Amino acid sequence: MRPLDLGDRWVLPTTDPADTLRTPLTCLDAATGAVVWAYPIELVETTARSGTDVLAATAHGEVVAMDPAAGTCRWRWVADRPFRSVDLLVTRGRVYVVGDDTLFILDAATGRPEGDPVTSAGGGPAADEDTLYLRIGDELTAWALP
Fold first, then answer.
1. Where residue 82 sits, what CATH number does that domain have?
2. The pTM is what?
3. Among 73, 105, 118, 145, which has the highest number of CB atoms less than 10 A from its own CB?
């Protein structure tokens, strides 16, 4: 996984040598490599940006939004089950989480779910300026973004 480049800092999951399941989300000073902060979380699968926040999704079905300056958690959402795979897409104030075969839509500012989950979703979501694209079953489905 590539680190999120925040200019003067990078954010990425790192491995705790004492516990290989623990992959703290770690913020490093880009110039020195020094650890700025580390947030204890397990099995980070993917990261994304949402405005100034850093998002991380885990195999445990958890998504967190972090303040990259302070290293504090702004919000946390947990699915009703763990994920074998997870993708994130952030656009227009929403976080689109595809965990296994289900699409969850979260408010990017609060982490609150919006609407019902969409099942039979496959692969990572994609979007252009006006449309969200997602494979549902064997078809590519397009939704107008709010």
1. 2.130.10.10
2. 0.86
3. 105
